[in-house]
Structure formats: structure tokens, C-alpha cells
Amino acid sequence: MRKGQGETGLIFDEPLLWEKGKEGRVGFSIPASDVEPSALDDELISPGPDFPDLSEVDVVRHYTRLSQWNFCVDTGMYPLGSCTMKYNPRSNERLAELPGFAMAHPLLPDTLTQGALRLMKELEDFLKEITGMDAVSLQPAAGAQGELTGMLLVHAYHKHRGKPRKKIIVPDTAHGTNPSSAALCGYSPVRVNSGEKGILTGEAILDLMDEDTAGIMVTNPNTLGLFEENIREIASIVHSKGGLVYCDGANMNALMGIVRMGETGIDVLHLNLHKTFSAPHGGGGPGAGPVCVKSHLEPFLPVPRVIESGGTYELSEDFPDSIGKVHTFYGNFGVMIKALSYIRTMGAEGLKRASQLAVLNANYIKEMLRESYHLPYDRPCMHECVFSDKYLRAYKVTTLDFAKRLVDYGFHPPTIYFPLVVNGAIMVEPTETESKEDLDLFIEACRCIAREAQDSPELLKEAPRASKRRRLDETSAARQPCLAG
Length: 485
Ligand SMILES: *Cc1c(COP(=O)(O)O)cnc(C)c1O
Description:
single chain, globular
């Protein structure tokens, strides 16, 4: 196989800083003091933590080496289904670093932050345009928090009409955060199974929808990578019983410029700026999960909201029916800058093309691997495709073995064992930022692994073999993590 992305040699070893330190070593040199030392009051000198003594190069090498143990989008393909690990252009970072933005204090008065407020307003307007919704709150810090915010809006809506409800319908192909968000808001999630084609049917919703059900949460495209084609019919069934339709739009990367979600009958939708709109994620950094609503839910949006009149912007809390705050100040501003920069540099045509390429790439992988890996739902997919380990199991090889072996080939493994409706699921989302050459390398690696499963399954059982750490006992790794390197 042609040389791939990972390196097998030169994997640096690195002890703890405490093991590296040597007494008396320092990272600086300053001129000798020319004043007499004077005794300080003992109480002023606290013993402090026991830091190791290190030179500058010790510290630089330590952290640089550790950084190279990380796999990231900047080092290779990261086909993690449902996570949209696309490459994020550096130009967006540059703009977020502009001192006027980066140094602005959240307590500055509106008169001194007109540019920042205008940026937020512009981003809201673009997101309205992209989704076809009427109003936006940029406040939630993540997709899951956007969902919770959306549920709080649904709750506020029913309460305002004097008819609070208790249940929310959640399909078996929803993202795992959906039932949790509904439950956190006090609703009982009611599961509905997808039909044979991997999408929801109107009949299934008709059976469940009643006047004690606040609405439905639909992930669209769903976690099988399929578009919920019956969404309009489902929305009208739910509306006919007075319910609302929540759309989990974290997978908007498949739809930009192609589907105006606001015209599919939904009432509220969240986006993940740290997926589709090119803010880096995956390391637990800040994110943004804006919530977009139709006008009947607008009065309940979180405060403060940016309002504009005659070219002047202000943050207003004057929305008496608002659910209140869901984040300090107005959310993660840095992420908003990157998203706006991305949207403006791409333009309408560019965003549409990104979605088209994301869908094309996923379908390319699906077609190229169909002989090697079982396709539980063999239909054209959206941004991701889902395989199962059905063919591997004949050789007693599992999805986990496949994922670990991919590490040896230099690829981050895809999402595995999710969605739950597929046994041994392998969920691949290549995104639009991978070139055909890189996709081909990935495909070749997957095909090699399928052949190995047949010819030498023990290779897969022992994988990964080339990485810094061999296969961990997953349970003890999670319960008793050893963080010492
Ligand atoms: C990623 C994702 C979420 C959760 O987003 P976070 O920012 O990780 O909280 C929700 N739904 C879908 C479909 C997702 O892909």
C-alpha cells in the first residue's frame, strides 16, 4: 500500500515533567542582584507547589512532544460520523484574533462594542437565510445546549397557551443527546422506530401523537445519514394535535443551499457552528449551538438579544416572555467570528458547493466499500454513510477490531456502534475538505483491513500495533484512567 498519513517510527517518548526536572536547573538567567538580600516575613512566603526545575528547552520539548501524540484534523483525515471534522481554514482564526474582537471585555457598554454587536446581528441574519427560519439566538454553547434551549422554548410555548404537556417523541435514529435534552427539560421521551427505509413514516407518528405530547425531535439528516423525506407529513400530523417540531440540524453540512429547513414544517432548529460552520472542535473547546425559530417561538428566545435601530446596535433584555439566559453574557463570541468569516468567505455558492461535495464524498466511500463492508440501508446517503460488521463477523472480527486496525493505517477511526439501530455500526463522515486522493487512501486502508479479516484475523485482534499504546482494556481505561503518559 502507498504510504499513508500516519508515521510509525519516531514516536517520541516523554516522561512527566517531574521526572525530567533536575534540581537547580532554570529557564532564565538574570543579572546577579546588587542589593543586600533582606529577610521577608515568613508568613508572606508560602511553600507553594513542588514545581520541577527545568530549562526552557526542556519545557518546549515536553509540550511539543506531547502535542505530537495527538491526532487531529491538521494531521490527517478524521472521518468521525456525525461530528463533521472538516478542516477549518486559518483565515477564520486570524479574524478571531483581531485585537478589537479578542480583547473586547463582555462588560463594555454597547456604545463601545458596536462592531461586535453588528457581527452577531449579521451572523443571525445569515443563519436565518441559510435555514429559512425567522429568528435566531446565538447564545447556546453547544449542540446539546441548543437542544435543551429548544426544549425550553417548546415548554414555554405550551405553558404560555395554558396547556403544558409531558411527552416528546424521539426516533430511534436521533442523536443520543436528543432524548437526554428532552428528559433534562422534564419531558418523557417516547421512542418511535424508523421504517424499513431507515426513515420515519407518517403512520408511526400518527399512532403516537396525542394531546399530551409536546412535539417531536427529529434529527435531519438522521444518524443513518438519510434525509427524513416524510418530514412535511410528520410535521402536519404533529401540528394537527397542537405539538411542535424540533429539528436537530447539527448535520446541516449536508444541506446548505440545498434545503431550506424552515420550509419543511419545523418550528425550531439548532445548528452546530463548531461542525458545519468551521469552528474547530473535538478537543472540548468552546462551541456554539445557535437556536433558530419560527416567529411564534421568537418571544421566548434567550436574552440578551441584539437589536438594531437606525444603524445602532444594542443588547436588550426587554423580552418579558423570554426563557432567560442559558449562558453567561451572550455565548461564545469567538466561535461566532469564525462562523461569520467562514460564511462570508464561502458565499452562497461556496456553501452550497461544500454541501454538495460533502454528500458526494460520503456516497463515493459508500460505493467504493460496498463489496467489503455490509450496508444495512443501501440507499443514497447524505453527509455520512453507515456500514455494519456483518461481513467481518464471519471471521470473528468486530467493528472494534476494524476501528483499532485503522489506527495502524494512520486514520482516525470513524464513529462506531452508533446509531444503535445498526448492529456493529461503522459511521463514516469524510466531509468536503478531503481530496479524492485522501479518500482513496482511506478506501484502500479499509479494503486492506477487510482482506486481513479473512486472511489473518489475529492481526486485527492485536491492533493497533504501530501506535504508542496497544489496545487498552476499554473498561478499565474509562474507569481507572492512567494520565501519566
Ligand atoms: C454533534 C451532534 C449533537 C451534539 O452537539 P454538541 O455540540 O456535541 O453538544 C447533536 N446532534 C447531532 C445530530 C450531532 O451530530
